[in-house]
Each structure stands twice: as C-alpha cells, then as structure tokens.
C-alpha cells in the first residue's frame, strides 16, 4: 500500500512539474505575441476594492462575492459562468476562510505555507501558496489561544489551547499532548536550548524542554499575571509583559532577571487619557536593540534596550488593546493593530504612513516577509488579504498582482462625475431636450443620461426664467415656517377625556431632569394609535365621581382646579381660532406643577380623607333608606282582625281617603309579611315559583336583551328514583290494608287517650294499632 501511494505521489509531482513548465512556455508565448491577438480575446477586468489613505493605495484582494460551501461543484461552475461579479473577483487562494471565526494566522519561514486557526468547530487549516489552495485541515478538541511553527515548513507545530493543554503536531498529524499548571496566554520558543516558555494566569514562567521531554524549573516573577512574551532573535533575551504594565527581561543562560521596564507610567503623556491601569498586551523585538510594547489602553511604546525611557509613544485614540505589532525594516515602519484598525507609521518620528480599517474586528495580523502583502484574522469567516505596493512587491507565487495593479493605475475608472448632471427622460421632456437623445451631448447611463453641467444650467435658465423668484419665495416660506415653530403652539384637545389629555400633555412637556426624578418617562398616549379610541368614543369617558377614581387618583383633587382653568382657557382659544380662522398667539401658563415630594407626602392623607368621605356617604345613604322605610310603615293602614273595630273604622276611611303610590321595585310591607316570608323560606324553590305564578305575582326582570325566565328541574339518580318509588308503593300498600277503628270508641266518651282511662294491661290507646 505504501509503495502504491509513493508511486501515485511521484506521478502527481511529475504532472505538476509538467504543468508548471507548460504554463511558463505559454506565458512566454503570450508575452511575445500579445499585440497580435489580444484584441480578439474577451477581457474581464478584475474587481478589487481600492482605497487610498495618505496617497497610499491599498488593494483588498478578498473583496467580492463568495460562493456558499454547500453548493455543488457543478452549480459553482454555472454561477461562475453566468455571474459577472463572480468572474471579476480575485480568489487569490482557494477557500481562504474559516467556518465562523479565525483567531490566529501564521506564515512558515520558507514562505510556502500559510496556517490559520479558527472555529467552529476548532480547527487548523494549512494553505499551500505554490498550489494556491487548501493543503489539509485538522480538527482539534478545543479552541486555540495561539500557535507557532517551529520548523521551516508545517512539519512541527505547537498549539496552546484554552483548557491548559499544549498539543504538538508533526507532518502526519497529532503527535503529543501535555498540560501546563495554569491557563496559558502566550508562549515563545528558545531555539538554542529547545525550551518552550509559557506565560499566563500565574506569576511563574513555565519551561518545557523539548529535547529532554520534561518541565524545568520555572522563572518566578513579581507580577500577578503575565499576558505576552517574546524572545530576541539576535541575543536571545526573553521579555514578558505583565498585567501591572511592566516588562521583565530575563537572560535564559543564567535564568535571572536583568531589567524591568515600567511601561504603564511611560505610556501616560500630556495628551493621553486612559481609563484604568495600562497593562502590556503586545510585545515585539526588532533587531538587537529595538523593542515595541503595546498597552491595553491603545498606546504603542518604542524602546531602545539601552534606555529605560521610550523613544516614542504612539496613541491609536481608540482605547482598545493593541493585539499585534510588526516591524517593516525596508521603510522603517511599525505596523500596530487593535481590533478596529491597522496603523502604519514611522518608528522614528511617528508620522502616519497609511492605515487599514476592515469591516470586521481584527484578531491577528500576519505580514508576509519581504513583500507588501499582509493577512488578517477577523471576527468573520473570510480572512482578508491586503496588498500594498508601497510596502514592497508581491510575493513570487502571486507576481501577477504587480501587473494587475499597474494596469489599474494606468487606466483609472472615474466613478464621480463632477462636470456632468444626471437627468432622466422626464427631466429632458420638461426642458424640451428630447431631440438631443442619441447625440454626443447626452451619454446614456442606467435609467437616464449624463449631460454637461454648463449646458444644463443654460437650458434651465431659458426654460424657466422665473426660477429665481420661485426660489426666493420658497426661502421666504421656509423662514416663516421656522419662525412659527418658535411661537407658543396651541394644543388641540380631543372631544372625549379632555382633562386626561391635558394631563398627558403636561407630563410630556416636563424637563428631562424632572422625568428622571419621578423615576419613569411618561409616553404620550395621544400619539399612539392603540389608545386613539379612548379620546374619540364617549363610552370611554372617565367618571371622576366614581369611588374607584377617587381612591386611585387622590392627587387629582389638588391639581384638578388648575387643570380645569387651563382647560377652559384652551377651549376659549380654540373657539376663537375656529371663529376667526386666524393664527392666535397664546401665552404659556407660568404656573409650575407641584413637586413630586409634596405629592408623595400628601398622598396618604388624601387617601384617608377620600375613604372617610366615602364611608360617611354610605352611612348617610343607609340612614335615609331606613328612615323612608319606617315612614312607609307608619303611613300604611293595616286591617284589624276584629270585625267590630273594622266597622267602626270604615266610615273614617271613607271620610278620610288616603292614596299611596308604590314605586317600581318596592314591595308592600306589613306585619304579616314577616310570617309569610318565614313560611315561604321553608318551602322549596319549585313550590315558591308555582305559588307566585298562580297568584300572579311572578316578576319578570327586563334586561337589555329582553325578559328572561329560568325553569329547571333537578335530575335525580337511578338509585334515588328507585328509593322514592319504593316509599310510594309502601305508603299505598299501608293505606289499603288499614282497618277502621271507630267501633273501638268507648260508650262513655271522654277525651282520654285510652278506652279505660288508664295505662293498664286491659286498656289501650284511642287509636288501635295492628299488631305485627
């Protein structure tokens, strides 16, 4: 199997070499004979986003449409053939993106491979610049904090994970995995001793020797936590940036600290405003004596290792932590990046060279060595590729970019027409210039035409000579409208709930300070369509005399009088405006609303007063009702049970007739009603209804939907019906067999119970009983 794979790989390598040779021959033929047949080929100009900052052109090679991953290869080819925007885009490296987010990006020292770590799911991707495509992809168990390439190519990789694991990869894949004591944030590799220095949420610097395969004694610092670290490539000085804003420098040969730089104090200058203590967030060496330090508050300090004071302090003015630092030796530039912007400036005087501001937040920046190309890892699936010709030439694997940029600079496309006016066909009809369509004076563009601005002004003046007068009138009208807005505006009150509308208007006009003091801002219900019916339908009128309103709104009684006066003034102003149909200038009320503190103090007393008044009204109402009932009872003439007395009172009634009117809903009251009610209470509901129906006293209540009467019968169970039927049968049987006992009455008579008058054995009761 291995021999088969080797043969297949050798054939593939041979085919690739042949293709490269053929491509070189074809490129030479094209370069020598371009002039003969270039005009016959369809030319598709590439589409790149070009920005110019400080006269430095920056080409965004990742700009353009991207095809979804879930599309099949066939659909992708169809879209590439039909969509012009996809044809014009430049896909420098195929599938140069992550599923969700890219966190770190690196370039191998030989320049052939670009490695990027991202999520989700956690993975690392390796791109081959010679093939301009993805070489391999490996999924990981957890997210990557940072990683580094220890070899010239991708054969030796080290990953630091967020769960304290350190993972080693070889050329074939995963090799080994170990764990450090604390959560790591950064690490550096010391090539002479094969030591890995890990820093993180600890005061110690952990050392892992890759030659011996074991941890060595840690370096103890005075810091609480360490954020970043770096090793000088010339003299191997190890530097660690701490949370307190200091940089500790160590000599790996003797494992002792040789110097300390206080960057937090040095980063604060006269014009610098920081929030909190600046901590070190980025660190980078330049040569043997240069070093740049980035802080968490957005400052970059450039040091000479021979001095404890910074040579230059550069502020990003965003207040964001510096995430990446790079040096460009050819132009003596420093490339510093935070999550918002990448700034390029001179390391000696701080003069800005250029800047790049991507659309997504930046996580990491990688500068391709010896060229003007840089890559960014963003909070976005796409990894941006920027090419800046001013920094250097394009890499050798994409040297065609120089030719493309030169062609774009020689043939710039003007997208802004300052000397032309865009007009539509309707504008041409209004100006009477439809006969110019098709002439060189009008250039067709989209849904209209471009014409010379001078010709447009001349024709406009000739077609409408009174344009200045119209413009003057419009300006005067605008001035009048602006002056009207400064006047006191009349308030239009609705027809329903005027006092509630007045209250809402006053609360909406309160200053912001008073609104905050009250605790909440009252929304204007008058402008809300959901509550429009409340101010239009009379059924929603608030009854201020009801008990609920008086208890829930105790403060209304205090400010109600002022609101009524103001309401009457507004009604009078509206009537005058309707009669005169002219604008009326009013004067705003100078009375101020009582403070919320006084309202809060008097709220409890007002509620108590309202409750006392309501109880007094209820007592007075019940007393009047009892008084009326007693008066009706006294005036009611009752008929006596003595017939003689009735005959004596009859002439008096005829001589003094009295008439009484019984009101609706009242009953005739007499002393006999009490006994009748008690008797009626003992009867069932069915019997009471039958008696009232037979006597004609059954009342039918009239409601809004008509008179209603409820008739119902109780549904009995089968057991109850069986028991009642058995009782009726038993009583009927007893009634049939009962014998008369009249012949047993004593001849002597008497009212005694027994016939013999005693309780003896021979005697008995008055009623005979059948012995069982």
UniProtKB/TrEMBL annotation:
The keyword GTP-binding does not apply. Residues 48-411 form the Nucleolar protein 10-like N-terminal domain. Keywords: Nucleus, Repeat, WD repeat. Coiled coil: none annotated. It is found in: Nucleus, Nucleolus. Residues 601-636, 644-653, 664-676, 684-695, 717-735 have a biased composition (Basic and acidic residues). This is Nucleolar protein 10. Residues 416-464 form the Nucleolar protein 10-like second domain. Belongs to the WD repeat NOL10/ENP2 family. Residues 528-554 form the NUC153 domain. GO terms for cellular component: 90S preribosome; small-subunit processome. Gene3D superfamilies: YVTN repeat-like/Quinoprotein amine dehydrogenase. Residues 752-761 have a biased composition (Gly residues). Residues 575-584, 591-600 have a biased composition (Acidic residues). Residues 736-751, 762-772 have a biased composition (Basic residues). One of its GO terms (biological process) is maturation of SSU-rRNA from tricistronic rRNA transcript (SSU-rRNA, 5.8S rRNA, LSU-rRNA). It holds the Pfam family Beta-prop_NOL10_N. Residues 567-705, 717-772 are annotated as: Disordered. It comes from the Eukaryota.
